[in-house]
């Protein structure tokens, strides 16, 4: 969606509101006709509907982004489909028609935000939507952070502030991250303020959010906790690029009265209805489980395996859990690899990939504990004990997937490591024991290990717990180098992306280059060519 369509969308919101039967004198009308404030406060359709669209929109166009990029690069997913003749993102030949959805999705969501702002001013003048707007701000940060973690610079603080010539400027990724932190901090303050008010106050705000909220059903205390957890996530992402601010922001989050998502009861899952992965995987057959994910889980004899994947139906590997290696010659495509293991996501809270009651995972308790473990490793105040945080992170992940009874023996395992990968269709794809593309990290905590090996253990288990959140898993893998992943065998980048260094970002697409975004400015902010081989600002290790 182009920026010049905003006016049309805003008009559409006004029409939508009119269609709901409300009038300009809606407050007086509803109180007179419907019998009191409990009925008057039960509508707010012009706010509620676009708020729902923002949340559901985070999974829109899911196949193009993130499934055929970040999901695959994370090592969690793969495909047997020979898109573009087998020359595409997965072999490092960047597909503009896929990757343009990253910024387009941000535009859609940010434009819905503008619709909400205009509805509040035009249709609900005088109503205080502080809490609802704080949630909207958090959703915008989630959206923008994903854009930045793919491209680097992005249009964020100036999205609604074009220059006199109509061109809109970018923020550098460094500046954007500081804006994200500031906006999350502001949202936390606002949410705590409204949550603390008596039930008879801020009724409009609380009622509109309750109707619009697909995550927590209007619970502002939980949203504040999510915002603070996201603040810790972004603070740790800055750890190599800006250690001082990383420490400052992380310690603020660790000390905040908002708390963190430390129990699965507070997990942030968007109820999306039909998960787009339900048809990408099970109807189209375009998404399979990743070979690295299965190699780790098979090697660890991980009890979560049956929740993450379906045994292969291929006669050569029937009944086994085996993924497809990314960036290989797929030979005859689906007829060769299509019956390898499919992904699933059968959690204790339900099927994330359900065709009727799907969930999109934003943040879970396990991630908070692993963030705390890394923060403790780095000596950040308030982070607690490294081993205790690590152990609790694994325990919370097992709880998320209904495997708590088996976590004790898993955490006690001192010998298991990632399993070799054997491709029964093409031995050239094998990764045998001793290959440096296989990790030697074990599960049980070892205080005697070096800090680097401790970091690998933390991030490897964090990566396993992040499933199926491919974008976050890929970002952390680039930042830390962990978990160790398999390299592509077929590199079609023409030398723009190193096979050994692996892909570091997704280039801007033609749509951005010819838009009213200041692409020349963005390209200068990259400190390198606009290719998949240039590192992002936070990618400093």
TrEMBL record:
Name of the featured protein: SusD/RagB family nutrient-binding outer membrane lipoprotein
Coiled coil residues, start to end: none
Keywords: Lipoprotein
Lipoprotein among keywords: yes
InterPro entries: SusD-like, TPR-like_helical_dom_sf
Pfam families per record: SusD-like
Superkingdom, taxonomy of origin: Bacteria
Lineage: Bacteria, Pseudomonadati, Bacteroidota, Flavobacteriia, Flavobacteriales
């Amino acid at each position: 969606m182009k920026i010049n369509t905003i006016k049309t969308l805003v008009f559409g919101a006004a029409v939508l509101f009119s269609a709901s039967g409300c009038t300009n004198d809606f407050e007086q009308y509803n109180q007179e006709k419907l019998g009191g404030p409990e009925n008057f406060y039960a509508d707010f359709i012009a706010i509620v509907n676009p708020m729902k669209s923002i949340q559901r929109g985070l999974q829109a166009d899911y196949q193009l982004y993130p499934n055929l990029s970040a999901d695959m690069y994370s090592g969690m997913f793969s495909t047997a489909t020979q898109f573009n003749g087998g020359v595409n993102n997965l072999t490092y030949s960047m597909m503009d028609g896929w990757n343009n959805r990253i910024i387009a999705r941000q535009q859609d969501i940010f434009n819905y935000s503008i619709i909400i702002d205009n509805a509040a001013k035009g249709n609900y003048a005088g109503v205080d939507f502080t809490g609802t707007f704080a949630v909207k701000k958090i959703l915008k940060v989630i959206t923008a952070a994903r854009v930045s973690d793919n491209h680097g610079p992005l249009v964020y603080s100036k999205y609604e502030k074009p220059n006199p010539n109509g061109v809109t400027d970018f923020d550098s990724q460094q500046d954007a991250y500081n804006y994200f932190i500031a906006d999350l901090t502001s949202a936390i303050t606002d949410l705590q303020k409204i949550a603390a008010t008596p039930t008879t106050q801020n009724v409009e705000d609380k009622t509109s959010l309750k109707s619009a909220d697909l995550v927590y059903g209007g619970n502002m205390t939980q949203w504040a906790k999510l915002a603070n957890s996201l603040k810790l996530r972004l603070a740790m992402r800055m750890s190599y690029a800006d250690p001082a601010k990383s420490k400052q922001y992380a310690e603020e989050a660790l000390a905040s009265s908002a708390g963190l998502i430390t129990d699965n009861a507070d997990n942030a899952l968007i109820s999306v209805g039909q998960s787009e992965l339900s048809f990408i995987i099970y109807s189209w057959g375009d998404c399979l489980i990743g070979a690295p994910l299965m190699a780790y889980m098979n090697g660890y004899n991980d009890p979560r395996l049956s929740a993450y994947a379906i045994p292969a139906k291929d006669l050569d590997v029937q009944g086994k859990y085996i993924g497809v290696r990314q960036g290989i010659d797929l030979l005859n495509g689906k007829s060769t690899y299509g019956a390898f293991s499919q992904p699933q996501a059968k959690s204790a809270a339900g099927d994330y990939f359900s065709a009727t009651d799907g969930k999109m995972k934003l943040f879970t308790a396990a991630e908070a504990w692993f963030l705390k473990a890394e923060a403790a490793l780095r000596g950040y105040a308030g982070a607690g004990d490294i081993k205790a945080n690590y152990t609790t992170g694994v325990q919370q992940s097992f709880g998320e997937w209904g495997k708590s009874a088996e976590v004790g023996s898993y955490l006690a395992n001192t010998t298991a490591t990632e399993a070799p990968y054997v491709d029964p269709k093409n031995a050239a794809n094998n990764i045998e024991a001793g290959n440096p593309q296989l990790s030697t990290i074990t599960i049980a905590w070892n205080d005697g290990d070096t800090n680097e090996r401790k970091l690998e253990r933390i991030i490897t288990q964090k990566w396993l717990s992040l499933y199926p959140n491919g974008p976050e898993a890929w970002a952390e893998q680039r930042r830390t180098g962990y978990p160790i992943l398999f390299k592509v065998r077929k590199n079609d980048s023409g030398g723009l992306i190193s096979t050994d260094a692996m892909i570091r970002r997704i280039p801007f697409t033609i749509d951005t280059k010819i838009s009213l975004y200041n692409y020349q400015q963005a390209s200068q902010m990259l400190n390198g060519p606009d290719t998949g081989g240039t590192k992002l600002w936070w990618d400093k290790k």
